[in-house]
Design goal:
heterodimer; A: about 300 residues; MetI-like fold; 16 helices; B: about 325 residues; mainly alpha; 2 domains; 15 helices
């Protein structure tokens, strides 16, 4: 028996169509800039200046990638960025989890004090200049340490991990205590492994933060070439292209009409953009389940 | 007399009890206190730098050997037309970011929730989270490429559709800057911001939808009258949490996309601090601007806290 279409069916069909079109637009707008950059990064630098590169390279070349990895400072930048990312992620996860564990112990006498010390930092900061003076006074200018030390154990991460740890049954801790385990032992062999899902989230957040930051390099380590980072190098190239007017680029193209294999700031930046985004873009889809959970805990504070 | 004695013994006992508890909790203290001290050094000790605001600070002398100038820098700051412009820019961009951010995230969350195909939904979600993981340097670079007058796709499309007959110099015209910052923020964070709304939506009682279907409501109506009210609490909570950040319009995108031609609309308070404080070496003036920002933010947090329901208290 065939039913006549009700008004709600028609409404649903229209709704689904509009929604599908909207989602396709969203995908295009989100993905196009990256795909375009990918195409530019594989296209000859001088040819790119002529314009018209959309989704596939016109004059294919590896030159842009070769050039960034043949420059010493880019290799240094890559190495420094990678090291600070790994070190920051590992230390932050272990230390933040450790402090978070002490906050889950209800009888801990400093529990309230520690919570207040951290939570207040979410709502104020001393400001750029006093912080800069502190870093200077501590002789941390132009050191690798400045990438790691100031950011260790942040309030947000602490609250997210603590909230997760509270969902782990108390009885596990109690039975370990009866067996004579101390807090270090309980933390390291029970709470730390059981918190793996939330720790994966925090590791991802810390890694992304460290990998993506350029301002600390700019402010504290701008003058030391061997402590430069990928994002800082990219930022320098960005200001180079910002200040270069269209006519400059055009005249460059005119001069290099027959020359190929030259790198322009635009194509070099495209190649670095790809190098700098690929590691994170390859990892995040696999951690989606965890960071969604982490954000949900973090958003609902307390 | 008797009670007094009892009190002292009580005090002695709690004192002894405290020491005893401390020694029992030795391991907990070792695990947490080094980090608390670390946090105090890096977040609280710099507050002594606020003294610079009342001094004619010269790096050559010690903290307390400076010339004290009272409120001189405060007066200078608020009579500086550039700073007043920067406050305006900060508030304007912050307001745009806040409004656009909330509206787009809620709309996207509602629409994502209506996708029936679970694989399509998951794919779109994954893609929409992607820009959140890119740095502002990368995003600023992408924005610059897309809006370029040479071969930017936006100008290409506008010219092909006949909307513009010449490429529009988006990044060197003051009237587009705030819009570009707002749009970049949406592009980067809209997907990410849906996470919390989608979590709220998934906790809505399914029987409400069934009842609405019985009454003949279509998907559009169910979305408007069940899902949207269902995320109201989450929305209010996020709004309250964000009020304290009203002077945080972001700093990176404005700094990276700003140039001499648009500086009168692109400069925020943070850029002012960077420019006068660090680059021109006027530590005192830069500190005053920073203090202004912190005090306004803290005040806003307390006001928001006042209006928040008990379950939304921030502190």
């Amino acid at each position: 028996m065939k039913k006549r279409k009700k008004p709600t069916d028609i409404e649903n069909i229209i709704f689904t169509t509009v929604n599908t079109i909207f989602m396709i637009c969203l995908l295009v707008v989100t993905l196009y800039p990256i795909l375009n950059t990918l195409a530019v990064s594989f296209n000859d630098g001088i040819d790119t200046v002529r314009g018209g590169i959309y989704l596939k390279p016109r004059v294919f070349t590896w030159a842009n990638y070769k050039s960034i990895f043949s420059k010493g400072n880019m290799l240094t930048a890559f190495f420094i960025s990678a090291s600070r990312t790994v070190i920051a992620a590992v230390l932050n996860v272990v230390f933040t989890a450790m402090v978070a564990y002490t906050l889950t112990r209800k009888d801990y006498i400093f529990r309230k004090f520690i919570t207040i010390v951290y939570v207040l930092t979410m709502y104020f900061n001393a400001g750029m200049i006093p912080t800069y003076m502190l870093i200077k006074d501590l002789h941390l200018l132009n050191t690798f340490t400045v990438y790691i030390l100031p950011g260790l154990v942040s309030a947000f991460d602490l609250i997210v991990i603590r909230t997760f740890m509270r969902t782990i049954p108390e009885s596990l801790v109690e039975s370990a205590q009866i067996d004579g385990a101390g807090d270090v032992r309980i933390f390291w062999s029970i709470m730390f492994p059981l918190s793996a899902p939330v720790l994966a989230t925090i590791a991802l957040f810390c890694a992304v933060g460290a990998w993506n930051s350029w301002f600390d390099t700019f402010l504290y380590n701008g003058s030391s070439k061997n402590l430069t980072t990928l994002q800082y190098e990219m930022m320098k190239l960005l200001s180079a292209t910002m200040n270069q007017s269209g006519t400059n680029a055009a005249s460059m193209a005119a001069r290099g009409e027959n020359a190929t294999g030259l790198q322009t700031p635009v194509s070099t930046r495209a190649a670095i953009t790809i190098v700098a985004s690929v590691p994170i873009l390859c990892v995040y889809p696999f951690l989606q389940k965890y960071f969604v959970q982490g954000m949900t805990i973090g958003g609902v504070k307390e | 007399m008797k009670t007094r004695v009892k009190k002292t013994t009580d005090a002695a006992r709690t004192k002894r009890g405290l020491l005893k508890r401390m020694s029992l909790q030795k391991q907990l203290i070792i695990m947490s206190m080094p980090f608390v001290i670390h946090r105090i050094i890096f977040s609280y000790i710099p507050l002594k730098g606020w003294l610079m605001a009342f001094q004619n600070y010269k790096p050559a002398y010690g903290w307390l050997d400076q010339e004290w100038v009272g409120l001189k820098w405060f007066k200078q700051l608020f009579s500086d037309a550039v700073f007043i412009t920067d406050i305006r820019n900060t508030l304007a961009m912050s307001f745009i970011n806040l409004t656009l951010g909330f509206v787009t995230a809620i709309i996207l969350a509602l629409l994502l929730n209506e996708i029936r195909n679970i694989y399509a939904k998951r794919f779109i979600q994954t893609v929409s989270y992607m820009p959140h993981f890119l740095s502002w340097v990368i995003v600023a670079g992408l924005v610059q490429n897309m809006l370029s007058t040479d071969s930017g796709i936006v100008n290409d499309i506008l010219m092909k559709c006949g909307i513009a007959d010449r490429p529009i110099p988006f990044l060197s015209d003051t009237k587009y800057f705030w819009g570009i910052v707002g749009a970049s923020n949406v592009w980067k964070e809209v997907g990410w911001n849906t996470i919390i709304y989608l979590a709220a939506i998934s906790s809505i009682d399914p029987s409400l939808y069934e009842a609405a279907s019985m009454d003949g409501a279509g998907r559009y109506n169910k979305m408007l009258h069940i899902t949207l009210p269902g995320i109201k609490t989450t929305f209010m909570m996020l709004l309250i949490m964000n009020i304290g950040h009203l002077l945080e319009a972001g700093f990176e995108i404005q700094y990276l996309l700003g140039n001499g031609l648009v500086s009168e609309v692109s400069e925020t308070i943070d850029i002012y601090v960077l420019k006068y404080g660090i680059q021109l070496g006027n530590y005192s003036l830069g500190t005053v601007a920073g203090i202004f920002k912190s005090i306004v933010s803290i005040t806003l947090v307390f006001i928001a806290n006042r209006f928040a329901g008990n379950e939304n208290k921030l502190i």
